[in-house]
Amino acid sequence: MNLWQAIKLLKRRWWIIGLITGIVTGAVFAYFYSQPREWEGFAVIAEYRSLQANRTVIYPDPYSLQVDLITRLQNIANVVGSYGVLLSTWRELKDSGQWEPAERIKQTVPPNEQDFAGVVDLVGRTEIKPIPNTEYLSIIIKTQGDIEVAPQQAQYAMEVLLRKFQDQYSQLNSQTARPSREFVEQEYQQAQREYERATRQLSEYLNQNKDVIQSQNQTNILLQSISRAEVQLYDAEVARQSAAARLARLTQQLRQEERRPGGGEYRQLSKVTRNNPILQQVQSELARAQNDLQAQIAQGRGDNHPEVQRLKGRIEELEKQLGEQQAMILEAETTGLNNLYEALKRDYLQAMVELQIAEKRVNELRAQLAEQRARLDGLPEKQRIADELTLKVQLAEGKVRLLKQKLDEALTRESELQTAGFVKIIDGPGARPVDKRIPLRVALAFALSLILSTGLVLLLGQVDQGVYTPSQAESLFGVPVIAALPRMTRTLLSRDRAEQTPLSASYQLLSTSLLESNGRLNGPAVAITGADPDVGRTTVAYNLALTLARDGARVVLIDGDMRNPQLHRLVRADVNHPGLSDILLGKATLEQAVQQTSIEGLVFIGAGAPPENPIRLLRSPEMQQLLETLKKVADFIIIDTPSAATFADSTVIGLAAGNVLVVHAAGQGMTDATREMLARFKQHNAHIVGVVLNKVRLDDSVVYRHFQKGYQRALSGRNGVAERAALPAASSRVDDSEPEQTTPRD
Question: pTM of the predicted model, to two decimals?
Answer without folding.
Answer: 0.49
